[in-house]
Amino acid sequence: MERQELIDLVLANTDGYECYPFNGPNSHEKIKWTVIKHRSNHKIMALIFEIDGQLLIDIKLDPDQVDILRQSETGVYPGYHMNKVHWNTVAVNRTSLTNDEILGLIKESAKLTLK
């Protein structure tokens, strides 16, 4: 999956909008972050980024689900630059998760961040 396909997938299945708050002209950040936020409460539901050519997405999950997912699936890690208890990074093209399973996790993140 390509970066824009992943962005489109998140936007098509949530009430989200994309923004780029970490990529300002004075930013020293080498990573281009696409942040997806809820339209209703403006909370972050997903962060999409690339490191060394790897497409990654940070998503929020229930803490009870986190350990099981990280142990049973490849390409799922503690959240990059996020709270490691709730947030997870999925290496989109290097995970054992299917695209449908990734979509399910995106929807779960949207639900959890809507509160």
UniProtKB/TrEMBL annotation:
Which Gene3D superfamilies is this protein grouped with? 3.90.1150.30
| Pfam family of the protein (one) | YjbR
- Which residues lie in coiled coils? none
Q: What PANTHER family does the record tag this protein with?
A: CYTOPLASMIC PROTEIN, CYTOPLASMIC PROTEIN-RELATED
Q: What is this protein called?
A: MmcQ/YjbR family DNA-binding protein
> Origin organism of this chain?
Ligilactobacillus aviarius
